[in-house]
Design goal:
Number of domains: 1
Order of helices and strands: HHHHHH
Distance between the termini: 33 Å
Radius of gyration: 14 Å
Shape: globular
Strand content: under 5%
Number of helices: 6
Structural class: mainly alpha
Helix content: 55-70%
């Protein structure tokens, strides 16, 4: 899976156009925001159940593949979502959408790429 920080120039503009709708759909869902603040894994589970199409559009958009050509296996979905939610640039992008996520950890401590802010 490509990281947002690896996508540059015109390709970045194409990806942004492709992920804007699914990101907006997910981040304007108040239940997602509530779940995110309580438990990231619960939020991910909620999004997968409530926004299946948006999740696929998001993953396809990041890969730069048209949705109708994008395929992902059961095994790949959690790995891609884990990678997505452990990428510092992705988390910064999500925070720019209004979610406070710097204190949230997804996955193991070894796999977590974010540091908790000093209070």
């Amino acid at each position: 899976m490509r990281k947002l920080s690896e996508i540059k120039n015109e390709d970045a503009l194409d990806v942004l156009v492709n992920i804007l709708d699914p990101v907006t759909e997910i981040f304007t869902d108040k239940k997602f925001e509530t779940e995110w603040k309580k438990d990231v894994k619960g939020a991910i589970k909620y999004v997968i159940g409530a926004h299946k199409k948006a999740v696929i559009e998001l993953l396809a958009g990041i890969e730069g593949v048209p949705v109708n050509e994008f395929e992902i296996s059961l095994i790949q979905i959690p790995m891609r979502l884990f990678d997505l939610f452990n990428d510092a640039d992705t988390l910064d992008f999500f925070e720019s959408q209004g979610l406070k996520i710097s204190d949230i950890s997804f996955g193991s401590a070894m796999g977590n790429t974010r540091e908790t802010e000093t209070k």
